[in-house]
Amino acid sequence: MTNQTLAADVVVVGGGAVGENLAGRTAAAGLKTILVEKDLVGGECSYWACMPSKALLRPGTALAAARRVDGARQAATGVLDREAVLARRTAFTSDWKDTSQVEWVRGAGIELLRGTARLAGRKQVEVATDEGAIAIEARHAVVLATGSAPSVPPVRGLDGVPFWGTREATAAREVPRSLLVLGGGVSGVELAQAFARLGSTVTLVARRGLLSAYPKPAQRLVEAGLRADGVDVRLHTATESVAREGDGVRAQFTAANDGGTGASAVSPVSAERLLVATGRRPSLAALGLEQVGLVPEELRTDATGLVAGCPGQWLYAVGDAAGKVLLTHQGKYEARAAGDAIAARATGSLAAGGEPEPWSKYTATADERAVPSVVFTDPEVAMVGLTLEKARERGLDASATELPIAVAGSALHADGYDGWAQLVVDEDRKVLLGATFAGPDVSELLHAATIAVVGEVPLERLWHAVPAYPTISEVWLRLLEEYGL
Ligand SMILES: Cc1cc2nc3c(=O)[nH]c(=O)nc-3n(C[C@H](O)[C@H](O)[C@H](O)COP(=O)(O)OP(=O)(O)OC[C@H]3O[C@@H](n4cnc5c(N)ncnc54)[C@H](O)[C@@H]3O)c2cc1C
Ligand SMILES: NC(=O)c1ccc[n+]([C@@H]2O[C@H](COP(=O)([O-])OP(=O)(O)OC[C@H]3O[C@@H](n4cnc5c(N)ncnc54)[C@H](O)[C@@H]3O)[C@@H](O)[C@H]2O)c1
């Protein structure tokens, strides 16, 4: 057993997408960067989240798209090839091997250390490796990029039954005959649809509605899509208890206080598999934060990722660990800002005290008002910025303009195209605060909205961004006309 001591400019704890990005940024700036990872380099997104879940969904979406177009429908008569879908998913996870990501890390000039890290004091990190403990002294910064862990709800009996989390669902080697999904968030709806389309009998139970962060019409379209795939969607339903039944589980429900969906919603459900997808929390326990006077549950960061209440400007948190936005692309954006801020502070080109200007390269300003997100169900939901409710909560004079998506482009795209779009406008400044699109294949419409929100493009100038004919984007023109331009 060795007891080595290493020195580095920057130590990044956690080699998920976010930690990798940050380390890439600081290494490129010439800072000696050590990346510590206890599991697979690439983290949740590559192996158990974004990539495999989208790989499980995409074949079903492609088949359904063909079936919505007369002429193609007649050719698309079969069912999904489960083995091929699972094999393609496995290929996207590189069969849960991180060789190529390790190559990228090394090629980027980052030093990789496999082990479990914790803070041992100011700028001190201790790593438990297979070869023994290694102490690292960080000259400039320690970055927590440790991701998040699933929250397990307090359901009676849950500790006594085997159940899947999102990791087990996305890594499934077989499609269960039946699946009970607890949780009506993004993971719940995406995985419910993926498995329903692969042939499972799926029940989805949500204690409130589905996708509560998104506007109601978008929620309703996703609910209809799930029901059309045969998913038994039970809203406003509380899970009372679960128990083992043969090789599977049996669950009992009660109507939630905010209005149940009738007696059928609370009838018990037996299923071969139970998937618990009820949210995630930052992974900050057992990191030794107490060693530096911090309370994990109260960790706060500024726009550069710097942890508040930690004197000396050396501790940062980014991505899911920072708990602001639990999305890969936004975490990587935080990593770019924090990585650049660390490098600039190390050379003195960024002042040690105070926060840089909003929208500078050192601040993740978009976290506050321009986060794009996509729910990859069929229909999809794509949203950026503030909903009308959120805008008003912030005291903004906001209005909403909304329409069904019914333009030449959507009619050509799919027979009976059913979609909905909304723009949220700041009435004081006449700029977009947010946009939501719901419908088949709307995700690629989102970046235009993100640019308009981030760029604070005046509506009267947006009027001159003419959507090509005939595309689904024509809905932009309809929305601006409906707004009154
Ligand atoms: C089912 C599902 C689907 C999703 N789909 C999408 C999607 O389509 N698009 C999207 O943008 N987001 C999606 N997300 C969210 C996305 O997965 C996360 O936001 C993203 O993975 C966060 O990246 P991260 O690097 O912050 O954390 P992680 O990817 O969790 O990486 C953290 C890393 O830190 C390591 N680690 C933790 N503690 C230590 C320690 N003490 N020492 C050493 N290493 C440590 C872990 O092993 C891990 O590798 C999805 C999430 C789920 C659950
Ligand atoms: N397409 C994507 O970008 C994508 C896909 C999946 C996940 N993610 C991200 O990963 C994170 C985790 O996803 P998630 O779906 O697990 O979390 P979530 O926070 O989106 O949804 C969790 C759901 O579980 C419900 N819930 C919580 N406690 C419950 C209980 N005791 N009983 C019943 N329901 C309960 C909540 O009301 C909520 O609807 C999210 O931040 C999400 O944005 C993103």
Automatic annotation (TrEMBL):
InterPro entries referenced in this protein's UniProt entry, alphabetically: Class-I_Pyr_Nuc-Dis_Oxidored, FAD/NAD-bd_sf, FAD/NAD-binding_dom, FAD/NAD-linked_Rdtase_dimer_sf, Pyr_nuc-diS_OxRdtase, Pyr_nucl-diS_OxRdtase_dimer
Residues spanning the signal sequence: none
Source domain of life: Bacteria
Keyword hit for NAD: yes
Domain Pyridine nucleotide-disulphide oxidoreductase dimerisation: 371-476
Family to which the UniProt record says this protein belongs: Belongs to the class-I pyridine nucleotide-disulfide oxidoreductase family.
Descriptive protein name: Oxidoreductase
